[in-house]
C-alpha cells in the first residue's frame, strides 16, 4: 500500500466513526452526508485490503485492522503536533500545551498544585485539565485527545503506557476535633459509631470499602452519599462525620489544620493504585515529558498525617 494515498479527509472521517460508533452520528458531528463518509471508508478499506469495521447491533466497532489504523493515525497526529511545538521552542516562542485527564480525587488539590509548580518553570505552556471517570481517562489517552491521564486501577490496554504507578490506600478523613482525630490507625469497627460519607458504588473507593465490610461482616450504612468527592470531604471538614479518600487527594490542601487523615487497617483498602498514563509508542513533547516527570517524582513524596 502506498501510504500517500491515505488522504487526510478519509482518515478524519474514519476517526470520527471510530469515536462515535456510527456513520450517522459521525455525519452529524462533521456536518457531512453519511454517503460521503461511507465512500471514504470504503476507499480506505479497498486501499488497505482489509475491513476496518465490524457491523454490530449497537453500531460500528473497529476491526483488528481498524484499531491498528486508528492508533497509528492518532500517534502520527500527535507526533506532528510535537514537531511544531519543538520548532516553535527553537524559535524562542515557547508555545505549547499539556492536556490532562484525571479522576476527581487527583483533580481536587494534587494536580492544581503540580500545575502551579510546572507553570513556574514553563511560563509559555498552557495546561488543560479534564476531570472524568476512570474509563473515560483511559479512552481519552488511548485516542490521543489528552497527553497524560491520571487514574486508579485502570484496565490494561495495549495502546496505553503506564508511566508510573504508586500505592494509594484508602484513609479516613475527619475534622481536627473529631473523637477519632488522635488515633494513629483505625479498624472498620472503629468507624461504626460515627456518621459516614461515601461516594457512589461505581468508584474504586466504594467498591473496595464494600468488599472490606463484607469480609469483616460489618454493616456500615452511609448517612451521606454523592458522586462529587469534594462534597464528601467538606462534609467531614465541617464535622459531619467521616469521609474516605486517598492521602494524595488532600495532601496539598492549604487548611491542613482543619483535618486529620488516618490509615485504615484493612487489606482491601490498601489494594488501590494511582497511575500516570500516556499513549503507547508516542514520543512525548518536551513539556508533556516534563509534566510526567514532575508527577512521577511527586508520587514518591508522601506526607500522611495521623494527628
Overall strand count: 12
Q: Give a short account of the largest sheet.
A: 5 strands, mixed
- What's the average pLDDT? 87
Strand content: 15-25%
CATH architecture of the largest domain: 3-Layer(aba) Sandwich
Task: Give the end-to-end Cα distance, rounded to a whole number of Å.
Answer: 66 Å
Radius of gyration: 23 Å
- Helix content bin: 40-55%
Q: Structural class of the secondary structure composition?
A: alpha/beta
CATH C-level label of the largest domain: Alpha Beta
SSE pattern: HHHEEHEHHEHEEEHEHEHEHEEH
Number of helices: 12
Protein name: HTH lysR-type domain-containing protein
Keywords: DNA-binding, Transcription, Transcription regulation
InterPro entries: HTH-type_LysR_regulators, LysR_HTH_N, LysR_subst-bd, WH-like_DNA-bd_sf, WH_DNA-bd_sf
Pfam families: HTH_1, LysR_substrate
Summarize this structure as a short list of keywords or feature phrases:
single chain; 307 residues; alpha/beta; Arc Repressor Mutant, subunit A; D-Maltodextrin-Binding Protein, domain 2; 3 domains; five-stranded mixed beta sheet; 12 helices; 12 strands; globular; disordered N terminus; disordered C terminus; DNA-binding; transcription regulation; transcription; LysR_HTH_N; DNA binding
What does this structure look like?
It is a single chain. This protein has three domains: 3-68, Winged helix-like DNA-binding domain superfamily/Winged helix DNA-binding domain (Arc Repressor Mutant, subunit A), CATH 1.10.10; 95-160 and 276-299, D-Maltodextrin-Binding Protein, domain 2 (3-Layer(aba) Sandwich), CATH 3.40.190.10; 170-270, 3-Layer(aba) Sandwich (D-Maltodextrin-Binding Protein, domain 2). Residues 1-6 and 302-307 have low confidence and may be disordered. The longest helix has 27 residues, at 64-90. The protein has helices at 8-20, 23-30, 34-48, 64-90, 104-107, 110-121, 134-142, 188-191, 204-216, 229-237, 247-250, 286-299; strands at 53-56, 59-62, 96-102, 125-131, 148-152, 160-167, 170-175, 196-199, 224-226, 242-246, 259-263, 273-279. It is α/β, with parallel strands linked by helices. The relative contact order is 0.14. The protein starts with 7 loop residues before the first helix and ends in an 8-residue tail after the last helix. The protein contains twelve helices and twelve strands. The strands form three sheets. The chain has a five-stranded mixed beta sheet with strand order 4-3-5-12-6, with helices on both faces.
Amino acid at each position: 500500500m502506498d501510504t500517500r494515498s491515505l488522504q487526510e479527509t478519509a482518515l478524519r472521517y474514519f476517526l470520527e466513526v471510530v469515536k462515535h460508533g456510527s456513520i450517522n452520528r459521525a455525519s452529524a458531528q462533521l456536518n457531512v452526508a453519511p454517503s460521503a463518509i461511507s465512500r471514504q471508508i470504503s476507499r480506505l478499506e479497498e486501499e488497505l485490503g482489509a475491513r476496518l469495521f465490524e457491523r454490530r447491533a449497537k453500531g460500528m466497532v473497529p476491526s483488528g485492522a481498524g484499531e491498528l489504523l486508528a492508533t497509528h493515525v492518532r500517534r502520527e497526529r500527535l507526533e506532528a503536533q510535537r514537531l511544531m511545538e519543538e520548532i516553535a521552542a527553537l524559535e524562542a516562542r515557547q508555545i505549547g500545551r499539556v492536556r490532562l485527564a484525571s479522576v476527581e480525587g487527583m483533580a481536587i488539590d494534587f494536580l492544581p498544585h503540580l500545575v502551579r509548580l510546572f507553570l513556574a518553570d514553563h511560563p509559555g505552556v498552557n495546561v488543560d485539565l479534564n476531570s472524568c471517570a476512570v474509563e473515560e481517562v483511559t479512552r481519552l489517552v488511548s485516542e490521543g485527545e489528552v497527553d497524560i491521564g491520571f487514574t486508579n486501577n485502570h484496565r490494561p490496554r495495549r495502546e496505553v503506557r503506564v508511566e508510573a504507578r504508586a500505592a494509594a490506600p484508602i484513609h479516613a478523613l475527619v475534622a481536627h476535633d473529631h473523637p477519632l482525630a488522635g488515633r494513629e490507625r483505625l479498624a472498620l469497627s472503629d468507624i461504626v459509631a460515627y456518621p459516614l460519607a461515601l461516594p457512589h458504588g461505581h468508584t474504586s473507593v466504594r467498591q473496595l470499602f464494600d468488599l472490606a465490610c463484607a469480609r469483616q461482616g460489618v454493616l456500615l450504612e452511609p448517612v451521606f452519599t454523592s458522586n462529587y468527592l469534594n462534597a464528601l470531604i467538606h462534609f467531614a471538614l465541617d464535622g459531619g462525620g467521616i469521609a474516605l479518600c486517598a492521602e494524595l487527594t488532600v495532601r496539598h490542601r492549604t487548611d491542613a489544620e482543619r483535618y486529620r487523615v488516618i490509615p485504615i487497617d484493612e487489606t482491601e483498602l490498601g489494594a488501590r493504585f494511582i497511575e500516570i498514563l500516556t499513549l503507547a509508542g508516542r514520543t512525548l513533547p518536551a513539556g508533556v515529558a516534563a509534566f510526567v516527570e514532575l508527577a512521577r517524582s511527586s508520587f514518591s513524596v508522601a506526607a500522611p498525617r495521623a494527628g
